[in-house]
Each structure stands twice: as C-alpha cells, then as structure tokens.
Amino acid sequence: MDFFVNKDSIVRQIWGKGDTILFIFAGAAAEFALNKAVDWLYYTGRLPSDPLGRLFSTVSYARVIVFAEKETALKAIDKMNAIHSGLETSRGYTIPDWAYRDVLFMLIHYSIAAFELLERKLTEAEKEEVFNVFFRVGDRMNLVGLPTNYKDWLVMRNEHLQNNLEKSHHTVDLFKQYKKHLGWFRYKVLKEGQILVVPQRVNELLALGKFSLLKPIVPLYKLSRKMKLDWLIKSLLLPRDYKAQIMDLDIVK
Considering the chain, what percentage of its residues have pLDDT values greater than 90? Predict the structure, then answer.
C-alpha cells in the first residue's frame, strides 16, 4: 500500500498527537492574524465567526494528507486547490503566490517548533523530512517559487517573515474573536502558548512578551503524559464543545 507520507516518517509522529497539533495551530493562529493577505480569511466570514471550527476543518485535511493512502491524500490536496480557486473566481482576483507559500511555511515551522517543545530536538534529516512532505503538498498545488530544500527554506522563511506580516485591524479583530470563542482563561493560555512557538518577528508585532507562564509548566505536562494523566489537564483547558474532537486527535500514543 502506497502512502503520501511514509509510515516511519517523523511527520506522522508530529501530526499523530493532539497536544502537538494544538501548539501548531496556536502558533499559526498568531501568524495568520498578521499576514498581509489575512483579508482572504475574512472573505467568507467563516474564520472570524468560528475560529475553532475552522481549526478542526484544517486538521481534517492535514490528517488525510499525512495518514491516508497516496491517492486519497492527493485528492484532498486537489480539493483544497479547488476550494481556493472557487474563492478566487468569486472574489474576482487571485490569492498572491506568497500568501500560499506563507501558509505552507507556517505548517513547516510550527510542526518543528511544537514537536521540539513537547518532545525533543529534531535532527537535520528529520527537519528535511518535514520540509519535504510539505514541499510535495505545495508542488501538488502548483505553487510557484518554492525552495527545494530545508536550508533554502530557512532563508526564504525569514524573508517572508520580514516582508509579509503587519499588524492590522484584521489582526486586532481576529484576536478578539479568539477571546470571544475561548473565554478569558483559555485565551490567556493560547497567548502564553504562542510565546513558546512563534518566531521573534511574530512576537514583536503582537507584543506577546519574552517569557511565557507556560514555560515552567511544560516539563510537568510532559511528565503527566508519561503517567497518563494529561487527559486531566486537557479536560480543564479545552472548550467543552470540542473536548471529544480534541481527544480524538491522538493517533500516535
């Protein structure tokens, strides 16, 4: 059986644990809000009206790509392409190439950052593997101007961070929506988690702060996972309406 992502790939380990995925999307939620093309996320109104629902929709596509058979994964990528093309037709102009690359670059960065926060440092070969998987996603989507290896990606990633981000009224509104849907306490946890995984440029624009209150808690949480008690912490932190969905994110035990 042929898979888009090999069964022994580090990407399956990263995307097989719910808490790692939550940190991926905590970081992406911060960077998305700063992207100069964030108005595209507002076009349908679905993101600001239901940011948590959009998270799980995105996760479902990523999960198919990472864990399904190759043909099923390719169909999922093609479906994403078709959705974006439909939006472009409806709105009357195209999403910039750099905006597509930014989304892909976020998945690479936060996959690495979240795993290293909760598990261990990745080897250079493993980082190259993370890059390679998402490069193939971008290549299937016919994205132009993609770097061809991890080293070149690091250079382009930095350029994108410097050139494609700004704090706008969309940024402020999106964070208001996060707070509205999460509640004050969970929103605070979100922002503290973002400090741990976002690049310095993102932190500076959002003024998140240099120290996260979660930093001393992370080692305790990692210990709780070994003792199978992490479900207790998750039950306290996760929105009630989404607990079952978040618990189902764990594929790799």
Answer: 55
